[in-house]
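Good morning C.,

I know you're traveling, so I'll keep this short. The sequence:
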Amino acid sequence: PIADGIKLFFKEDIIPEKADKGLFFVSPIIPLVTALISFIVVPIPSWDFLYRAVHISLHRFQGYHSISELNIGIIYLLAVSAVGSYGIILGGWASCSKYSLLGGLRASAQVISYEIAVGLSLIGVMLLAGSANLSDIINAQHSSNNWFIRNIGYIVVQPLAFIIFLISAIAETNRAPFDMPEAESELVAGFATEYSGFRFALFFMAEYIHMVMVGFLCAICFFGGWYGVFPFLPPMINLLIKVYGVVFLFIWLRATLPRVRYDQLMGLGWKLLIPLAFINIILTSIIKLVIE
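The C-alpha cells, ready to paste straight into the viewer:
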C-alpha cells in the first residue's frame, strides 16, 4: 500500500481535453476535506492511565479532548458527510466522460438514499442518551444502571439500529458490496475514470478516512466509546480496538461478498432499512417512556 501511494503521488497528472478544469481540480479535494473536518467533534480519551479508574457519577468525565465540543455533534457529522458526496458528483460531471458522469449520478442517489437511514438509525441512540453530543453519549452509556449497557454499550438495546447503521454506512462510503459508483465491470472506474496520479489518490484517501470515521462513530454510539469489558486497558487502546474491529469488517466484506445490483441497492435502502429505522425509533420511544 505504501508503494502504491508513492507511485500515485509521483505519477503524471493527465487532464482530459474537454474537462471543466476548475471543477476537475477542486472535486477530489472536497471529499478529503470533509472527511478530515469530521474528526473535530470526535472526543479522544487521554493517554493518562489514571483516567481509566475515574467513575462517572453526577460530574462530567474530563479525561478526553476534542477540537470542538458541539452539542449537535451527530447532526454535524451527517451534514459534513453529505457535503462530501458533492466532490464525487462534480468530479464525474467535470470529467466530460459518460462513465464518470454515470458514476457521479449513482453516487448522489446512493448517498441520498442511505444518509436518511444513517440519520434515522442514530435517533434511537440520541433518545436514550438525551443528547447529540458524542461525549455525552459515551457518558450516558457508562453511567447507566444497566450492567450490560455500562460495560458493552447501547448495542445491547439498539441491535436493530446498529445493523441499519452499519449497512447504511457501508453503502454511504461506497464500499463493497455497495461500490456502485466505481463498478469496474460496468463503469470502468466510475467517477474516477479520467483521474490519475495525485488527484486519483485523493478520492480513495478520503474513502478510507471516512471509513475510519464510521469506525469511531460505531465505537462511540454503540460500544461505549473508550469504556469496555477490559478495564485494565488504557481508554485509548479500548477505543482503538473497537474502531479497528469495524474497519476490519469493512475490509473483510470487500474480500468476501459480491457486488449487488443497483436496483437491489436502492430497494434495500428505501423499502427495508428506512422503514425498519422508523420502527426502531417508535420502539425506543415507547421503551423510554415506560422506563421513565
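Safe travels,
E.
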